[in-house]
Amino acid sequence: MRIDLHTHSTASDGTDSPADLVRNAAVAGLDVVALTDHDTVGGYAEATAALAGLEAPGDLTLVTGAELSCRIDGISMHMLAYLFDPAEPELYRERELVRDDRVPRAQGMVAKLRELGVPITWEQVARIAGDGSVGRPHIATAMVELGVVDSVSDAFTEQWLANDGRGYVPKHELDPFDAVRLVKGAGGVTVFAHPGAHKRGETVPEAVIAELSAAGLDGIEVDHVDHDDATRARLRAFAAEHDLLATGSSDYHGDRKTVRLGACVTDPEVYREIARRATGAVPISAV
């Protein structure tokens, strides 16, 4: 089985519509794909409907999820939440707080970049974001269009949009311990996304991850394109020591990044354990 548990659509900052994401996952030969847009479940209905239209619909299973924005001790981190009840009131309220802060935050970054001499406009960023949850990748794409940087990843530096970079503006983010509690309360499963991605900025100390594990964190994303071999080996050993599930995922964003679907995958036994632990929702397969 080929299982990719971290992907994004136009519901947040990917370039594939939710339906296209499902179709592309099938073409890529995936058996399971998780839709984990940033702080939103807005792509669920379209992705689910697309399953039925596949040439061989029973060959692909959809896992519903989200990537929640969190921060602890001034360090930004992302929490993957799988198979939770999207209507659970407390988690829904927190997701809306994060989403409501995205537009003023993005407008603040546009203002900062203009002060730095970048001829970016809010209208340009809003056009790129479309109906998705606006975020830094949309601003980075605008910078590519303007010729300020060569690629989206080149915008995520201290010079521009990296955490605490010259154009960075913080947003409302969950405390990760609250995120674990809220997702658990909604029947979901939690996995700390790309915990060793040092090039994105400061990372959460392993002592804190151990505390999160004791508080109910289910797993950590080990196999990720931002983790080199040494980091993967260290994280895999850490997961084993702390009884955490070790997942693998592409963190696919469509054409916005060069990473392809299935670039990293999750062991089938780990996937089955995630599905077993979840009580808020079940994986969806159109037969």
State the total count of DSSP E strands: 8
If helices are DSSP runs of H or I spanning 4 or more residues, what is the number of helices? 9
Low-pLDDT sequence parts: none
Residue share in β-strands? 15-25%
Structural class: alpha/beta
* Helix content percent band: 25-40%
Average pLDDT figure? 95
Order of helix and strand elements from N to C terminus: EHEHEEHHHHEHEHEHE
Give the overall silhouette. globular
Distance between the termini: 17 Å
CA-atom Rg in angstroms = 18 Å
Largest sheet: 8 strands, mixed
Question: Descriptors for this entry?
Answer:
alpha/beta, single chain, eight-stranded mixed β-sheet, 287 residues, 9 helices
Characterise this structure.
- The chain is α/β, with parallel strands linked by helices and 287 residues long.
- Helix content is 37%, strand content 15%.
- The chain contains nine helices and eight strands.
- It has helices at residues 18-27, 44-52, 89-115, 122-129, 136-145, 176-185, 206-214, 229-241, 268-277, and strands at 3-7, 32-35, 61-72, 75-82, 189-192, 219-223, 245-248, 284-285.
- A hairpin with a 2-residue loop joins strand 3 (61-72) and strand 4 (75-82).
